[in-house]
């Protein structure tokens, strides 16, 4: 599984300063050349909607309803089955792929979120790419190490690789998600998503929705006992470097191992997504689709290999 990189930077301030508040002054990283995003239309957007929970999951259906009600032209192109945790995996090597078209504006791809986005861009939106790819809203958060392996984030990354602006949406706190409460919290998540997309569209004017190669990883907390509460604010964040889910292996003695996962939260990084979500705030982290780092890291690497010969 190929890992994507989430930027620990305030690049979001390039496009949504009024939503995000104050961010540290950090230079944007140098990234590999990518296709230039098309200019955003003046009116409603053409949106490819995907996820990793499956095309019929509550999160994506609620997203379809809410984004459509906001006036956007939305088409679901999402996995046929639950693909949580598949990250940026694409094309398993099978010579064929099964695709169902169960209803108008809905395509179900028997593959990963990345496969779904690839099919959507190549076949459903052939000839004219969508204005935006939205992945989610996911059942549960995609912060810190979870984002690295998230199929929801992976779907957004697949769009960025093709030069299409993308937003990953997730709903959940840092404790085990309660199904009813999480589904309730998807309403506020999508209300915010509509506001964010509208802000991007208005600010873009005749330019792209987002800076070239930049996507947004949005994590909405669960607020209130019923999940319908209002978040405490919006924060520009970065992916907290910790991975708080630790696998626990127990030898069964017969050549098999029992596997469980425990939560081991460490102190949150200041300014990171965990800190924001724990405070009841919406975490918005800019991300890119490659592994490039900034000029400081490149200088360190250059010093490291200076004088080395094959």
Characterization of this structure:
The chain is of the alpha/beta class. Helix content is 28%, strand content 21%. It is built from eight helices and eleven strands. The strands form two sheets. The chain has a nine-stranded mixed sheet with strand order 3-4-2-1-5-6-7-11-8. The protein has a two-stranded antiparallel ribbon with strand order 9-10. The longest helix is centred in the middle third of the chain and has 26 residues, at 179-204.
**Terminus-to-terminus distance:** 29 Å
How many β-strands, per DSSP? 11
Helical amount: 25-40%
Mean pLDDT: 85
List the total number of helices.
8
Q: Structural class per helix/strand content?
A: alpha/beta
Give the amount of beta strand, in percent. 15-25%
Shape: globular
Q: Largest sheet, order of strands side by side?
A: 3-4-2-1-5-6-7-11-8
Low-confidence segments, given as residue ranges, are 1-35
Task: Return Rg in Å.
Answer: 19 Å
- What's the helix-strand series? HEHEEEHEHHEHEEEEHEH
């Amino acid at each position: 599984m190929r890992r994507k990189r989430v930027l620990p930077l305030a690049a979001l301030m390039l496009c949504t300063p009024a939503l995000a508040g104050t961010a540290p002054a950090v230079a944007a990283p140098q990234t590999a050349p990518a296709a230039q995003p098309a200019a955003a239309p003046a009116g409603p957007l053409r949106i490819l909607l995907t996820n990793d929970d499956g095309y019929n999951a509550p999160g994506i259906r609620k997203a379809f309803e809410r984004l459509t009600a906001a006036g956007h032209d939305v088409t679901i192109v999402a996995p046929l089955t639950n693909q949580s945790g598949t990250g940026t995996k694409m094309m398993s090597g099978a010579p064929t792929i099964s695709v169902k078209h169960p209803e108008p504006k809905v395509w179900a791809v028997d593959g990963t979120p990345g496969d779904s986005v690839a099919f959507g861009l190549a076949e459903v939106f052939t000839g004219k790419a969508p204005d935006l790819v939205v992945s989610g809203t996911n059942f549960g958060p995609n912060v810190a190490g979870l984002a690295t392996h998230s199929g929801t984030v992976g779907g957004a990354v697949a769009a960025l690789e093709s030069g299409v602006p993308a937003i990953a949406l997730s709903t959940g706190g840092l404790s085990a998600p309660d199904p009813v409460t999480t589904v309730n919290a998807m309403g506020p998540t999508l209300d915010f998503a509509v506001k964010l997309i509208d802000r991007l569209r208005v600010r873009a004017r005749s330019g792209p929705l987002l800076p070239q190669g930049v996507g947004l990883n949005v994590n909405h907390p669960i607020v209130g006992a019923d999940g319908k509460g209002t978040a405490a604010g919006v924060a520009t964040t970065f992916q907290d470097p910790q991975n708080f889910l630790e696998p626990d292996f127990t030898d069964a003695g017969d050549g098999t191992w029992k596997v469980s996962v425990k939560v081991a939260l460490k102190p949150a990084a200041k300014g990171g997504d965990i800190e924001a979500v724990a405070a009841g705030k919406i975490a918005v982290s800019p991300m890119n689709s490659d592994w490039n780092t900034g000029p400081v890291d490149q200088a360190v690497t250059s010093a490291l290999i200076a004088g080395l010969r094959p």
